[in-house]
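Support reply, case 0932

Customer input (verbatim):
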Amino acid sequence: MDYFNAFWVGGLICALVQILMEKTKMLPGRIMVLLVCSGAILGALSIYQPFVEYAGAGASVPLLGFGNLLFKGVKEAVDENGFLGIFMGGFEASAVGISAALIFGYLASVIFEPKMKK
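Our regenerated output:
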């Protein structure tokens, strides 16, 4: 049942974002920023964590989950380091995911030899 919940919740998030992209004139970059900020706000309001517990990767993998991760990292760092935690927490919490994205992106570009658009 965990896989099913992750699938339908992640699919619903993707479908809603696709509708947002199709029906508005918002650029994809702005939609991505909106999702990350929404995830951080939902995390700050303690709404997102029960959602993650229910849907698992369906809620933690999309950009909403990244925003929630950044918020949790900043919150923990502020509790430990005070004011400086505001600047440190997001980097510490998301470093592994960002590093993995960079490494796998690089490996994909080496294997598949991307071509520039003309």
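We compared this against your earlier run and they match. Two observations from our side: Residues 85-112 form the longest helix (28 residues). The mean pLDDT is 88. Please reopen the case if you see a mismatch on your end.
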